[in-house]
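Progress against Task 2.4 (sequence-to-structure conversion) is shown through the following example record, which the project officer requested during the mid-term review.
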Amino acid sequence: MNMPFYVSPEQLMKDRADFARKGIARGRSVVVLAYEGGIAFATENPSRALHKISEIYDRIAFAAVGKYNEFENLRVAGVRYADMRGYSYDRSDVTARGLANAYAQTLGTVFITESKPLEVEIVVAEVGAQAADDQIYRLTYDGTVADEHGFVVMGGQAEQLGRRVKEGWRADLTLGEALRLAVAALGSGDGSTSRTIEAAQLEVAVLERDRPRRAFRRLNRQVLADLLAEGAPASSDEAPADDLPPADDVATGSATPGLSTADTVPPETPADEPAKDSEAEDSAAKEKPDEGPGATGTTPGAEG
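Structure tokens generated for the chain above:
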């Protein structure tokens, strides 16, 4: 009789956790951070159809990393949960906390009972009427729920990217500043090298506090490019204003190179000198004797 294969529960849970973490680490990171007007989501995703950031309900959004088919099933289940609860009770009864609890139960059950855990990590965020009412929940593969404040980074290099975001984050960031910080963090990688991520390679969405009901909005490429370019330095091809010649130099027209406006050389000939020269020539012509035949002392008609 063969002995049954035995693995201790501690080793089994450890193997499952390692398996899930390795799968999540292969995915591109997602940055979620609060700014003065709401909550912003950013990730590197060149696909225009397979979204990692989505709307769940009126003021609730969802972001995930890991295996697409697994977190897409969770997103669809979250939408159904929110619709059913809002229809049965009231729209205000649909909250990010309730949705996070439902996700935690699903993730925890799969992690314990199934042979393979879900290789996903998700964020559920809700924007409130005020910044103090914003809610951001991070859920891991084993159903652990963390209540985050300000920002959260998840994915392959979450620790390195999280330190970069922490250095530049503050509560009063504008939308442009928040997106530039998130994109810079995504491009920093492991910290040794950095790269510039174009707007076409990004997926960005926001939960805007001032929108009346549905707060979720995706940013298209043009809007995103304009927001990222707001803080970019001016092009070096254009001369700075300080290098342009003063307007007074253009007006005088006779400045010597290397001299300022005050050192401009005046014209050599004043405007009234030509008039004086003409008067002197006229007076000289009157005083000078006639150089005709009479000038030689010969009287006309004396010859012969």
